[in-house]
Write a structure and sequence with these properties.
heterodimer, A: about 190 residues, alpha/beta, two-stranded antiparallel ribbon, about 30% helix, B: about 350 residues, mainly beta, Porin, 11-stranded antiparallel beta barrel, 3 helices, about 10% helix, elongated
């Protein structure tokens, strides 16, 4: 107990000194800018592009309606997805909403489900049954659970898988161009 | 005891205050707009690299990426130890004419990294080392020795043997060589300055004097808010140096856990175990009865350090892409082929920029 207390005190003392040093370092200008991009900034652009290549049934998405893009998952790291709010795709405005309740998913045209929601995925999919919602996920079992598009990170680059069966079930038409870039996975 | 705990609590409060202050700096540009990539086609988006350094660090880099880094290592040794027991200066002076009392070592290392392919990262590292050691002699006189200069230049390669989709689990192979650019001829005055400068003892030299192999294996695990890993990194000395000795091989096993508190702030805990062997051969100009630091058989030992750290990543603003890591710790256990100076505390500071 005595040794642990001494070690803890010593650790606290040196860490405080080190943090003070760190505080001084933070003020130093780096001079070098990174060209790398945040994962969700790329995924936001993918979502924007997906909408261009998907057709919803007319009764679900009338000619001049906004396209509602829902984000499910409270992790702040997905915040960059909201950056596409207000953008237009083929004359339609994208309206981005954060949702928490499963019952809200049916009002979406595109639903991004963050990996933080993996435990709720079966319930979400059950609620969506028969709805024309383009589901986009980022989980290993997303396609197997009935999801339509799943992001994967491979060799530091974003790739996506498509489940055409899921799209047919949701009465969504995916363009051949989109399918040609995806890894097609049958559910 | 209670007063000590209060002092520790005060120190903890200082730490969290410092974190908050640093956080204030780091989150300054939090309102910055995300990078807009909506102008890119799907084909173009599939070529964009996801950020490679995050708040918990990265050991490998995407093809074509350069990274510059600085690592500062500070180690303080105070008092002597033989085996696991402390030994007083008087006890050391019963055996030797001089006893080391304390030592401060600083290493400032410049690093450059380049990834020619997605699976291979090459690194070059050049340290600048400053050492100072205080001594006491049998007649009670005290003196200080110092040495300073570049250490051994290292080149290393990190090859990804296995990477699970999404980088959840990665296994890296390390291979490197240490080139003897550090001096083994450092001299300073002893207790009697009239005798002039003489060759300093083994721990005060700046290099090994030999080419050394740096093999190793690293495991990295990553989840949404957690990162963990383990690394085995031996240093294998090749041959004898020009002063007829070889520093002992060093075997290092580390395991760590990191927690991403926010996108820009992470906390780490690490256990670092080291075993290093005695010097084989001997520098004939060093009298092993004069001081334990000159005795080739009193150089080895083993130690387990516990270190806590803070990582700060700058995702936006003028410092975008920079990662700052500060880690501090103390030994939980040390057993030394002594008498030998025992480690008191260790601090590491690292800064990395990717571009």
């Amino acid at each position: 107990m005595g040794i642990l207390a001494v070690t803890a005190r010593r650790l606290a003392r040196v860490l405080a000194a080190a943090l003070l040093a760190a505080g001084l370092q933070v003020g130093v200008p780096a001079g070098v800018q990174s060209q790398t991009v945040h994962e969700y900034e790329i995924k936001a652009a993918f979502l924007y592009n997906f909408v261009k290549f998907v057709e919803w049934p007319n009764e679900v998405l009338p000619e001049t309606s906004d396209i509602t893009v829902c984000i499910m998952g409270g992790d702040p790291s997905v915040d960059p997805l909201e950056s596409i709010n207000g953008r237009t795709v083929r004359g339609r405005r994208l309206s981005v909403r954060r949702i928490r309740a499963i019952k809200d998913v049916e009002s979406c045209h595109v639903l991004f489900i963050s990996s933080s929601e993996e435990s709720r995925l079966p319930q979400v999919m059950q609620n969506l049954h028969g709805s024309s919602v383009l589901t986009v996920g980022e989980m290993e079992r997303f396609i197997a659970s009935g999801g339509i598009i799943n992001f994967v990170v491979e060799r530091n680059k974003i790739r996506f898988e498509i489940n055409p069966t899921g799209a047919e079930r949701a009465r969504l038409k995916l363009s051949s161009q989109l399918l040609s870039l995806a890894r097609v996975v049958r559910q | 005891m209670i007063r000590g705990r209060l002092a520790a609590l005060r120190n903890c409060a200082t730490i969290f205050l410092a974190v908050a202050v640093i956080g204030g700096y780091a989150s300054g540009p939090a309102g910055a707009q995300p990078v807009d990539l909506t102008g890119l086609s799907l084909q173009e988006l599939m070529k964009v690299d996801v950020i490679s350094i995050n708040v918990l660090g990265s050991h490998i880099h995407p093809a074509g990426q350069w990274m510059l880094g600085y690592e500062g290592m500070f180690e303080h040794m105070d008092g002597n130890r033989s085996g696991t027991h402390r030994v007083s200066h008087d006890r050391v002076l019963e055996q030797f004419a001089t006893a080391p009392t304390d030592m401060m070592m600083q290493m400032h290392m410049a690093m450059a990294m380049y990834a020619p392919t997605n699976n291979l990262t090459l690194m070059a590292m050049l340290p600048y080392i400053l050492k100072s050691m205080n001594h006491v002699t049998r007649d009670g006189s005290r003196f200080k020795e110092t040495s300073e200069g570049i250490g051994d230049f290292q080149v290393r390669g990190l090859y990804t043997l296995y990477a699970e989709t999404g980088f959840r689990h990665r296994l890296l192979l390390n291979a490197g060589v240490s080139v003897p650019t550090g001096s083994i001829d450092e001299q300073d005055f002893g207790p009697d300055r009239s005798l002039g400068r003489s060759r300093l003892e083994y721990p005060m030299q700046l290099g090994s004097g030999t080419f050394d192999l740096l093999p190793g294996v690293t495991y990295l695990g990553q989840a949404q808010s957690w990162a963990w890993g383990a690394e085995f990194m031996p240093t294998v000395r090749l041959g004898r140096n020009p002063h007829h000795y070889t520093l002992g091989n060093r075997y290092r096993l580390s395991a760590w856990l990191g927690w991403k508190w926010t996108e820009w702030l992470g906390l780490t805990a690490r256990l670092d175990g080291q075993l290093w062997e005695n010097v084989s051969g001997a520098d004939r100009t060093l009298d092993p009865t004069d001081e334990p630091t000159k005795d080739p058989k009193a150089q080895g030992g083993r130690r387990l350090d516990a270190l806590l750290g803070v990582n700060i990543y700058f995702p936006e603003g003028i410092l975008k892409g920079m990662r700052l890591a500060v880690e501090a710790g103390a030994p939980l256990y040390q057993s030394l082929n002594g008498p030998q100076l025992q480690t008191d505390w260790i601090v590491h500071v690292g800064v990395q920029w990717a571009f």
